[in-house]
Structures are given as structure tokens and as C-alpha cells.
Specification:
With about 100 residues, the protein is of the alpha+beta class. About 10% of the residues lie in helices and about 25% in strands. Strands 1-2-3 form a three-stranded antiparallel beta sheet. The longest helix has 10 residues. Bound molecules: zinc ion.
């Protein structure tokens, strides 16, 4: 019973353009499964990129207890990007 019918989104996407940049993230439902019981957690976060693992202590993000989806606020994304090797700016300057 592995057949999974891709359900067309039943929720009408209305008023999606209202998003203040930099504002605190407020979520009503999990974007993956629609669960309404998102939990705001703060814990050490570990990610892997290209075989390299990196961790961020005390990262605050939302986690869906139903499907395990993680949702990050813009601030959390900044911290992740700052720590991730994928976003590390290469220092190739050699000349003085
Ligand atoms: Zn979910």
C-alpha cells in the first residue's frame, strides 16, 4: 500500500502576499502536512552539507510533531547559512 495519490491542495491560497520581511515568523499550520500543532523548539541543530557536518547550538525553529517537518524563521536561516559550508564565502584573496 505504497500508493500515494498526490492530493491537489484543498486549501485556497488567498492573501499570500502579505509577508513583512524580517518580522517574527508566525505559523498556523505545517506546510507539509497541515498539522496545527507546530512546536517551537530550541535545541542544538546539526546539518550536513556535502559530507561535512556542522552544528548550531540552541537554534530556535519550529518542528512538526506529526511529520517531522522543520520550519525555520529568517533569523534561524541566517544562522544556518552562517554556519553552513555551503554558504561560506571563499577566501581566495592572495595578493596583499
Ligand atoms: Zn507536518
Amino acid at each position: 500500500m505504497a500508493t500515494k495519490i498526490a492530493s491537489t491542495s484543498s486549501s485556497p491560497a488567498s492573501g499570500r502576499s502579505r509577508r513583512a520581511p524580517g518580522s517574527e515568523l508566525s505559523l498556523a499550520a505545517c506546510p507539509a502536512c497541515g498539522s496545527l500543532s507546530l512546536e517551537a523548539v530550541e535545541r542544538d541543530w546539526t546539518g550536513t552539507w556535502s559530507g561535512q557536518s556542522y552544528s548550531i547550538p540552541n537554534l530556535r525553529f519550529f518542528e512538526c510533531p506529526s511529520c517531522g517537518e522543520r520550519i525555520y524563521s529568517p533569523e534561524a536561516m541566517r544562522r544556518i547559512q552562517a554556519a553552513s559550508p555551503a554558504f561560506r564565502k571563499p577566501r581566495l584573496r592572495r595578493s596583499a
